[in-house]
Write a structure and sequence with these properties.
The complex is a heterodimer.
Chain A lengths: L1 H22 L37 H6 L6 H11 L8 E8 L5 E8 L5 H15 L11 H9 L5 E4 L2 H9 L3 E5 L5 E4 L29 H11 L5 E8 L5 E8 L5 H12 L9 H8 L15 E3 L2 H10 L2 E5 L5 E4 L11 H4 L2 H30 L7 H11 L6 H21 L5 H18 L5 H15 L4 H39 L1 E2 L2 E2 L47 H9 L13
Antiparallel strand pairs in A: 1-2, 2-4, 3-5, 4-5, 6-7, 7-9, 8-10, 9-10, 11-12
Helix pairs in contact in A: 7-10, 12-16, 12-17, 14-15, 14-16
Chain B lengths: L9 H13 L6 H9 L3 H25 L5 H9 L1 H33 L6 H17 L2 H26 L16 H11 L8 H5 L7 H35 L4 H7 L15 H26 L8 H13 L5 H45 L3
Classes of the chains: A alpha+beta, B mainly alpha.
């Protein structure tokens, strides 16, 4: 009897389940309809005969991957028109013309207007085929396409494909497809030319010394920017096309023979398993492939580093890290990453080592200030007055005398107010944004103090906290610390310094338990891995012999043993620094 | 999940054990030493360290015969499944009781120092919950925590000892042998129990990358533990005299109170709360981890995580068995240490003897089997 009921329920739910499945699945893997009117009889699916294909009805990615280009031009063009919904899709251009050979041969090009460089298309495809080919020569039926590619297309990148899916992908990527009557293949001419921002100055990782340029919204420009810095044939750039709707190109960069093959394989495994409908930015890929935080099953600590600087990316690659670039995203993702990387800035390496170290110490102080200063203030005011000198206690008490709120309300109110100003400053047009931010902060805090809503000391505390958070060079890390600050405020309100100690322990526990692509996030401190000094202290360049050990690179030695042989003092230091054995430098890796 | 085999470095283990052994010095240990040994506490501690190293040698000798298992596996292989489990039972009880009593004492310490109106039960529960959370994240995480916080603890510990030096009078440490040579040696023998955490080495041996690092890690940990305990024990006597130190509940805390950094900063002992807290959390996590590993190894439990909440709850209940802090401290540094000294010396010795007996039997059997 219960079985019968179960069957009945299952039968009742089955259509609903299918409907849900159909509604929420998209893309190539699932069948999609092509504009058949609602309720109309679609009839049987089209066959694979060499005939005008017409509206294709249901087309799956698998079908496209199996389907080959036909010999007849009309059939092919009709197929493309059907696939791209021409003429309803107004940006897709299907242009028919005749190649001026003797006898003339019918041909067609398909491209998306706005994604191709029109001048290139006219000058290197249409002009040679229509005008320069009038040399009286004939194009034989066999090998016609190859001959066109070799003799009539002066464009620098031409590929031949016979699978329909490849040609569709090429068109969507901004290339032009050339089809010739009688040729069961198509030619892909790389005449991409969509508009993108030029290479400009970096906005979030600015430096005084060092290169100023940053990545832009063009993948090939971005890979070229890195290639210009690492002129080594071992730099591998593997690519994937991800996102069933967006068809975003994703590239993985690493140096063959240097980067740990396990890391490469692991990253490859994670990228290739991505199956989403859209991949609009590197941030989305980062969210998908990042390692989980422990003990929370969700990733709450960034385990990949996003940078917009090609020089920083190149430096990471040279150390044995991997870099991932995503479509039109102006950020490179670095994997694996360690916590100290969030506090480093490329400028540290371009300055003399004491200055670089001093800058890092300032940032470290900024980090602790941003995280703990409000909580420490609350602890001192509410729990540990004895720690403060009597005069200062009296001054604080006098300042807070007229404030009607407890210090927790004061500090949370001011912190939230500051966060509002910061968030609003991002949205306000850039010309007046900073001014509004400063004016807002100054006027609001002055008014709040004058109205006895907050004490003046608290304004100083919150301002210092804000400065500390802006000293952190990485945006994700700064945001994370800003969020944790409220956690510490809560703990300090409950238990003073004891609460802060509990919070520090919990955060440290999470950082210690978390790994980024198999590498502990707190390497090389915990676990201690030694190597060249590059955590808080930045060693002198002539002592930075090793790449990070925790990455287990195939070649640990970054530079030869004596890089300043002409200087007896540093040469002596290098001799005494206890480095591993010297390996002769290789011209190419 | 069990820790992965062969993932822990000997250096990291040495740091973890150093912190675990040294953490006792923030409790009532210096008072107990002052009561019994006067100014000679550091010598008794040295004798205890020497006995502990001897015992460590026996542990290493036993483990050398069992390259794939730890102390529990060795006990089961040598004494049989039932007797082997019974042999390691005192060790389990020792670590569990150690966790519980330490939690109680540190909780009272925090209550006295910074949170006078917070119930001590709550503070102990927080400490044990943190320990449980750490243990559930595994041995790797625990040693990383120890590695990370060793720098912070050293950063606090060195000023604590150095800043207290101006108030110290080294004359209080004399007569050097305190109550006499024989009592110092006898107490030293018993003080080997203060280093009982070195037995964790035997439990985590399968998870250490290179077995040869165990001996070095153990000796370093015992050495650093002795230095830290001897420094605070001697300083306490030198600053407060033996009689004065004997009256203190938490001598290290009182020592911190006596430090004057300048006129601007008053009552710096509050800052040292971070030192007590981190030391307490690491120590309890290590001893709880040891208890969990013993149960997991004794009963071949693949997943050790489900054991953690149960043992944490038992430890929390045990922590409030003694009626007062004084009773808890007395239990920890007198009754438990006496039992611990038997375990620390007795268990490795017993296992070593069993190893020799087994080896002798095997040789005899081989001789009998040999042709001719």
């Amino acid at each position: 009897m219960p079985r019968l009921w179960l069957k009945k329920i299952k039968a009742a739910l089955c259509p609903t389940a299918n409907l849900v499945k159909r509604t929420f699945s998209l893309g190539w893997r699932r069948p999609f309809r092509t504009h058949t009117p609602e309720g109309a009889d679609r009839g049987p699916p089209p066959t694979r005969a060499d005939q005008p294909a017409g509206p294709p009805g249901r087309v799956t990615g698998e079908e496209l991957e199996r389907e080959r280009i036909r010999s007849r031009l009309e059939a092919n063009l009709q197929r493309f028109r059907g696939l791209f919904n021409v003429p309803r899709s107004s940006d897709v251009v299907v242009r028919e013309f005749r190649i001026g050979s003797s006898p003339a041969i019918r041909a067609g090009i398909i491209y998306i207007d706005g994604l191709v460089a029109r001048d290139q298309l006219t000058g290197t495809v249409l002009q040679p085929l229509m005008l320069l080919s009038r040399l009286g020569r004939s194009l034989p039926r066999r090998g016609r396409l190859k001959m066109v590619a070799e003799t009539l297309l002066p464009h620098n990148q031409v590929r031949q494909h016979e699978v329909l899916a490849d040609l569709v992908d090429a068109i969507l990527a901004g290339n032009t497809v050339l089809l010739i009557d009688g040729a069961p293949q198509g030619l892909v001419v790389e005449a991409r030319g969509h508009a993108y921002r030029a290479v400009e100055q970096t906005t979030s990782e600015t430096v005084v010394r060092g290169p100023k340029h940053s990545f832009t919204e063009n993948l090939r420009v971005n890979t070229a920017l890195v290639r210009r810095l690492i002129r080594c044939p071992s730099l591998v750039i593997e690519s994937w096309t991800l996102g069933r709707l967006t068809r975003t190109e994703v590239v993985l960069m690493y140096i063959e023979g240097l980067t740990n093959p396990w890391l490469v394989e692991e990253t490859r495994r994670r990228i290739s398993s991505v199956d989403v409908d859209r991949l609009l930015d590197a941030g989305i890929l980062e969210r998908i492939i990042e390692s989980p935080s422990q003990p929370i099953p969700f990733p709450v600590v960034p385990t990949m580093l996003a940078t917009e600087r090609p020089d920083r990316t190149a430096a990471f690659l040279a150390d044995g890290y991997l870099a991932i670039l995503v479509g039109d995203s102006p950020h490179a993702l670095i994997a694996p990453t360690t916590f100290q990387s969030f506090l480093h800035n490329p400028e540290d390496y371009y300055l003399n080592w004491p200055l670089g170290t001093a800058l890092r110490l300032v940032r470290l102080i900024g980090t602790f200030t941003s995280l703990l200063l409000p909580a420490a203030y609350l602890s001192l005011v509410n729990f540990h007055h004895a720690l403060i000198p009597t005069e200062l206690v009296l001054a604080i008490a006098a300042a807070r005398e007229r404030v009607p709120f407890p210090s927790l309300v004061e500090i949370v109110g001011l912190e939230v107010g500051f966060e509002l100003i910061r968030e609003a400053g991002i949205r306000i047009p850039s010309v007046i944004g900073p001014t509004i931010g400063i004016v807002g902060a100054v006027i609001l805090s002055q008014a709040a103090v004058a109205a006895n809503l907050v004490s003046p000391l608290l304004v100083i505390i919150v301002a210092l906290t804000a400065l500390g958070s802006f000293a952190i060079p990485n945006y994700s890390a700064a945001m994370l610390l800003r969020t944790y600050r409220f956690f510490f405020i809560a703990l300090a309100t409950i238990a003073g310094f004891f609460g802060i100690a509990v919070g520090i322990y919990l955060i440290a526990l999470m950082l210690c338990a978390t790994k980024s692509f198999g590498v502990p996030l707190l390497s090389p401190v915990a676990p201690f891995r030694g190597g060249s000094p590059d955590v808080v202290l930045h060693g002198a360049q002539f002592l930075m012999h090793q790449r990070p050990r925790f990455l287990r690179p195939l070649d640990l030695i970054a530079q030869r043993r004596l890089i300043r042989p002409w200087d007896p003092v540093t040469a002596q230091l290098e001799e005494e620094s206890g480095r591993p054995e010297h390996r002769p430098p290789r011209s190419t890796r | 999940m069990r820790p992965e085999l062969g993932k822990i470095d000997g250096t990291h283990l040495a740091v973890l054990l150093s912190l675990t052994i040294s953490a006792k010095v923030f409790l009532a240990l210096p008072s107990f030493l002052a009561v019994r040994m006067g100014g000679a506490g550091w010598i008794a501690l040295g004798v205890g360290a020497a006995v502990a190293i001897l015992s460590l040698f026996l542990v290493m000798a036993v483990l050398a015969r069992f390259p794939d298992s730890g102390l529990v596996g060795a006990a089961r292989a040598l004494a049989g499944p039932v007797a082997g489990r019974l042999l390691v039972l005192p060790l389990f009880l020792l670590f569990l009781a150690d966790t519980a009593l330490t939690a109680r004492q540190f909780a009272v310490n925090f209550q006295v120092a910074v949170l006078p109106r917070t119930p001590v039960e709550l503070l102990a529960a927080v400490l044990l919950l943190l320990a449980g959370l750490t243990v559930s994240l595994g041995l790797e995480t625990l040693v990383r925590m120890a590695m990370l916080f060793s720098l912070v603890i050293a950063l606090f510990f060195v000023p604590l000892t150095v800043a207290a030096l101006p108030a110290a009078d080294l004359g209080h440490l004399f007569p050097l042998l305190g109550p006499g040579l024989y009592p110092v040696l006898a107490q030293g023998w018993q003080d080997s129990a203060l280093y009982d955490e070195f037995l964790i080495l035997g439990l985590v041996a399968p998870y250490v990358r290179h077995r040869r690092e165990l001996w070095r890690a153990g000796t370093i940990a015992i050495g650093i533990g002795w230095l830290a305990m001897a420094a605070i024990a001697s300083l306490t006597v030198a600053v407060f005299t033996a009689t004065g130190a004997a009256r203190l509940t938490f001598p290290a805390f009182t020592l911190a109170r006596s430090i004057i950094f300048g006129e601007f900063v008053e009552r710096v002992e509050v800052i040292f709360i971070f030192l007590w807290f981190l030391a307490a959390a690491i120590k309890q996590s290590a001893t709880l981890m040891a208890a969990v590993l013993i149960v997991a190894d004794a009963f071949d439990i693949e997943q050790h995580r489900p054991l953690v909440p149960a043992l944490t709850a038992i430890a929390l209940s045990l922590a409030f068995f003694p009626p007062s802090l004084a009773a808890a401290a007395q239990l920890d540094f007198e009754a438990l240490r006496l039992e611990a000294s038997v375990v620390v010396i007795g268990l490795p010795l017993l296992l070593f003897i069993l190893t020799l007996v087994r080896r002798g039997k095997r040789r005899t059997a081989n001789v009998q089997k040999a042709p001719g």
